[in-house]
């Protein structure tokens, strides 16, 4: 199971540009899915509000100074007034940029949040508030309420956890939580043996960049290999999942270009590289039914409903019943590290698709109408 890394505001403050080497490495490990990177929602709110307050304070000092100059200036129609308006506009733009920058960081680091809105969580926090339980330093100490939410967030997370925090009072409380190790910096986290091994894997993955670059260079051919594989395997899978006889005809009516997620490539112990991909696909399953059976279906009072979902093609001696299946297929390429694309092509294997990747459109329509 991936280790879960949880960060407090006190640590984020030391990396407030979100561009330090340590925070970028943490983000990369999370993006590659080596770790689970978690920020309690209350930490996000604290961190962004502190950055915004600092920015507002700096701009307000400049604006206040300019206003004072305007009052003292002997010049008529001086430009200071327009400068004040410019700084006000700049302040608003920068405040928006703080939120935008955070959203970008969250997206690029595969960051997840722990909410504090749960009724159960709130009742626990206020029970501790009235009793003065950790992390409250005393009964009804309001300044410790944010820490209490963080404490109970961490307590609710299963598995092996590392909590990075520079607040002694909160650290002392969290250290009592099962399977949780408290550290006071990201650098100390990277000194842990578990993290050293994970970083080593990331570095090894960097060594296969030339192989991934070759795949990207020949991406059109790689996508053709994926599509060819689908053409041969989807009919069999569709028959198996629908419970229909395998000699029925399946036609792939539309197949979207695969989206290959190179950034999520993983290196495994045997040296194989796994690269996930996904694509959307529509298939038509054709089943031959007898004329007698078709007549029986036609005589049903619900026939007009059935024809909204399933198409029937009539011939002189038979009827073909068509149902369309649609879905998103997810799988992975498995390749070996090679120095030429021809060698890579020989090693390409495509893993099994996910178990629930194709759904009958007729069933979906029927469910919607019900």
Tell me what you see in this structure.
- The protein is an alpha/beta fold and 370 residues long.
- Helix content is 51%, strand content 20%.
- It contains 15 helices and 13 strands.
- Strands 6, 7, 8, 9, 10, 11, 12 and 13 form an eight-stranded antiparallel β-sheet that branches. A five-stranded parallel β-sheet has the order 3-2-1-4-5, sandwiched between helices.
- Helix 5 (119-131) packs across helix 6.
- The protein starts with a strand and ends with a helix.
- Residues 363-370 have low confidence and may be disordered.
Briefly characterize the structure:
By secondary structure, the protein is an alpha/beta fold. The protein has 15 helices and 13 strands. 51% of the residues lie in helices and 20% in strands.
Helix content: 40-55%
Strand content: 15-25%
Low-confidence stretches: 363-370
Order of helices and strands: EHHEHHEHHEHEHHHHEEEEHHEEHEEH
> Sheet with the most strands?
8 strands, antiparallel
End-to-end CA span: 41 Å
Write the layout of secondary structure elements.
Blueprint: E1 4-7, H1 9-12, H2 21-31, E2 36-40, H3 41-72, H4 80-108, E3 112-114, H5 119-131, H6 145-155, E4 161-164, H7 168-174, E5 180-183, H8 186-190, H9 193-206, H10 209-217, H11 219-242, E6 249-255, E7 259-260, E8 266-267, E9 272-289, H12 291-298, H13 303-306, E10 311-314, E11 319-336, H14 341-347, E12 349-350, E13 359-360, H15 361-369
Parallel strand pairs: 1-2, 1-4, 2-3, 4-5
Antiparallel strand pairs: 6-9, 7-9, 8-9, 9-11, 10-11, 11-12, 11-13
Helix pairs in contact: 3-4, 5-6
């Amino acid at each position: 199971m991936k280790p879960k890394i949880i960060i407090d505001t006190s640590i984020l403050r030391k990396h407030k540009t979100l561009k330090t080497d340590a925070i970028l490495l943490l983000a990369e490990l999370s993006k590659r899915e080596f770790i689970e990177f978690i920020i309690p929602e209350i930490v996000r709110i604290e961190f962004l509000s502190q950055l915004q307050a600092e920015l507002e304070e700096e701009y307000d000092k400049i604006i206040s100074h300019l206003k004072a100059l305007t009052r003292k200036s002997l010049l008529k129609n001086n430009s200071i007034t327009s400068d004040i308006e410019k700084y006000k506009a700049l302040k608003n733009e920068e405040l928006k940029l703080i939120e935008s920058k955070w959203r970008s960081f969250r997206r690029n680091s595969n960051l997840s949040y722990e909410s504090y809105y749960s009724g159960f969580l709130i009742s626990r926090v206020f029970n501790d508030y009235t009793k003065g339980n950790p992390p409250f330093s005393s009964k009804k100490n309001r300044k410790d309420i944010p820490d209490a939410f963080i404490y109970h967030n961490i307590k609710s997370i299963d598995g092996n956890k590392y909590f990075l925090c520079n607040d002694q009072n909160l650290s002392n409380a969290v250290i009592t939580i099962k399977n949780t190790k408290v550290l006071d910096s990201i650098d100390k986290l990277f000194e842990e043996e578990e993290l050293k091994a994970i970083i080593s894997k990331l570095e090894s993955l960097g060594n296969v960049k030339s192989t991934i670059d070759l795949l990207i260079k020949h991406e059109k051919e790689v996508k053709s290999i994926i599509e060819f594989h689908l053409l041969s395997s989807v009919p069999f899978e569709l028959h198996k999942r629908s419970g229909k006889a395998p000699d029925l005809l399946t036609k792939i009516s539309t197949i979207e270009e695969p989206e290959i997620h190179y950034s999520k490539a993983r290196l495994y112990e045997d040296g194989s590289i796994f690269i996930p991909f996904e694509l959307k696909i529509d298939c038509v399953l054709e089943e031959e039914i007898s004329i007698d059976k078709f007549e029986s279906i036609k005589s049903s009072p619900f026939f007009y409903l059935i024809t909204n979902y399933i198409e029937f093609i009539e011939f002189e001696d038979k009827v073909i019943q068509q149902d369309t299946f649609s879905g998103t297929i997810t799988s992975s390429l498995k390749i070996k590290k090679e120095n030429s694309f021809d060698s890579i092509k020989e090693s390409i294997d495509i893993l099994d698709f996910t178990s629930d990747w194709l759904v009958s459109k007729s069933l979906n329509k029927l469910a919607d109408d019900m």
